[in-house]
Sequence to fold (713 residues):
Amino acid sequence: MNRTTILYAVLLALALVAPFGVYPVFLMKVLCFAIFACAFNLLLGFTGLLSFGHASFFGVAGYVTGNMLRDYGWPVEFAILAGVAAAAILGTVFGWLAIRRTGIYFAMVTLALAQMVYFVCVQAEWFTGGENGLQGVPRGALLGVIDLNNDLSLYYFILAVFIAAFWFIHRTVTSPFGQVLKAVRENEPRAISLGYNVDRYKLMSFVLSATVAGLGGALKCIVFQLTSLTDVHWYTSGEVVLMTLLGGMGTILGPVVGAGTIVTLQNYLASGAFASSVPIVLGFIFVVCVMAFRRGIVGEIHAFVKRSF
Amino acid sequence: MKALRTACAITAMTLGSTAMAADISDDKVKVGVLTDMSAVYSDISGEGNVVAARMAIEDFGGKVAGKPIELIYADHQNKADIAANKARQWVDDEEVDVIADLVTTSVALAVNQVADREGKEVITLISGAASTPITNEQCIATGIHWTYDTYALANGTGRAVVEQGGDTWYFLTADYAFGDSLQSQVSRVVKENGGEVLGASRHPLETSDFSSYVLQAQASGAKIIGLANAGGDTINAILAANEFGIVQGGQKLAGLLMFITDIDALGLEVAQDLYLTTGFYWDMDEKTRAWSERFFERHGAMPSMVQAGVYSSLMHYFEAIEKAGTDETFAVREQMGKMPVEDFFSRNGRIREDGRMVHDMYLAQVKSPDESTRKWDYYNIVSTIPAEEAFQPLSQSKCELVNN
Fold:
C-alpha cells in the first residue's frame, strides 16, 4: 500500500462516519459543490480552459431534474440522468461555439452564453419558477425502495455518486486522453504538430466537464428540494473558480478541499460576529490565496511534501 | 391531504388546550432570524431585524411562560439553498421554534418547505418577502406573512392614486414574471376605478440606462408613470426620470415596491412627490414615534416596515405562547389567529387562515426638501387603506387551507 492509497482510505473512512458528527445536509452540500468543482477543474486544471459559464450546466441540470421529479413524477435515478443529459447537450453547444477562441475570449464567450441561459431562466417561469425558484421538489426513493427523505440514506447515496464521479475524473485525467489534455494545456501548437486534433480533445473535455457539473447540480436540487436563479447566476460560475483556485488548480483533490472550505465558510460565518461580512471574508481569503499560495491549499501541501521528504 | 392533516392537528389541539399546563419544549423558546445581512436587502432587513428581534425579546422581559427566550440569527446571502440549509439545521439540531424575516421570496418559499415537514413543523413569520404565492399556491399551515405583499402595494397605490386624480397610467415594467404580475395587478385596479392605461415599456432586469424608456413614458402624456420593478431598477428609473424633468413637467411617479431606505438613498430632491404604499411609517403617531426612536438609538436608522414588522410579529408570537401556555407549533399558530393584532405597527390586524396578516396600509407621498424638517422626515401619509380592502380577499385565495 502506498501513501496515496492510505490517504484515500482514511478519507473514505472519515466520509463514512462524518454524518454522525456533522449535520448531513451540510455535508451533502459540500459533496455537490465538490463534484461541481472537480468537473470545473477537469477543464481549467487539466485542459487549461477557463470557462466562466459553468453555472449554466449546474443550474439547468438542477431545473431539469427538479421538473422531472416534481411535475412528471419520474423516478429519482432517471430524473438525475435527464438533468445530466441536459447539461451534456448544453455543454456540447457551448463548447462547440467557445473552443474556437482561447484565453480571455474563451472566458467571455462562455460568460455571454451563460448570461443568455440565465435570462432565459428568468423568463421561463413555467419551467424555472422565475425569481421564486423551482420549489418543493420531492426527493423520491432510490430504486423505489430506499426512502431518500431520510437524510442519512440520501447522504450515502450522494457519497456513492460523488465517489463514482471522483473516480471518473481521476480515470479521465490519468488516461492517455488525459495526457493529451495536459499536452494541450502546456503547449497547444506542439500538440497540434504531434498530430492531435486539438479542437476535438478540447470539445470532449468541455462536454465531460459540463456533464459532471450537471451531475452536481442535479444532486443539489434533490438535497435542497429546490433550484433557484442563484444556481445559474454568474456569481456561482465565479464561486466555482474560487473553489478550484483555493483548493489547488490541477490537483485531483484540490477542488474537493476548495469546495469544502468555501461552503464551510459560507455556512459557519453566516451566523455570529461575521454574519454581515461573508463576501468580504471570502474576498480577502481569495486575495491572500492568489498573492501567497499560488498553488492553492492542496498544491502547497504537495509542494511542501515534495520538498521535505 | 396537507389540509386534512392540519385540520386534524388543529382540532386535536383545540380539544386538548383546556387541560394544558405550561408546556415549553426543551425549556426555552428559540427565535431564529434568517435575513440578508450582506447583499441588496440588508438595508430594509439585515442587522436592523436582529435589533428589532432583540428589542422584542427584551420588551417581553426575556421570558415567556416562565422560560427564557433565546435568539440566533444568520445571513442567507439571498440564496435559497443557504437559507434552506440553515433553517433545516436550526429545526433539526438547535430546537428553533420560530423563524422570522425571510426576505426575498425564493428564500421564504424554500424555508416554508422546511418548516412544513411532518412532525417537524415550526412557525415562520415572513416579513421581508413580497410575493403573493406565499399565501396562495404555496401556502403552509404554519407560515404567516406579516408585513406586506405585492398585491397590497399594487392595489393600494393603484386605487389611491386614481382617486387622487391620477387616472391615466404608463408603466415601466421589468421584463420578467414579477414585473408582469405587478403591472397586470395595478392595471386591473386602475381600470376598475375608472382610470386608463395608456401603455407600457418593458425593460430587461438590471437595466442601468433608462433614458429611452423614460422618454417613451414622457411622450405618452400619462399623468402617472408606474414603476413595476424593484430595487436597483426602480432607483435607476427614478434617477432617469429626474434627469428628464418628468416631475417638473407635471407627470408623477408611482413606485410599486419601495421602502423608506430607498427614499433615503435617492434623496428628497430626486424622490419628491413620488407615491408609494407602505405598511408602516415611523412618524405617524405617539406609539410609532416612541418605538422608532428607541430603534433609532440602537440601529442608527429609522425602521423600515420590514424591521417594524419583525418586532410586531415576534411580540404577537410571544403573547400567543403566554396565552396558550405552550410553544407547540399548531397550538401557538391557532392562538395567534384568535388574537387581533393591535400594536404600534398594526391597526385592525388579524391573521387569516391562509397565513396572511391583514392590517391597515398607507398611501404615502414623498415630501419635498422644503417640507422635510429632519433626516427621515420623508412621507406625507395621504390616506389609509383599511385592512380588509388592502389585501387580496380570501375569496380569491388559491391557498389549499381556504375552503373556496
Summary: Residues 221 and 251 of chain B are 8 Å apart (CA to CA). The domain at 2-148+287-354 of chain B is CATH 3.40.50.2300 (Rossmann fold).
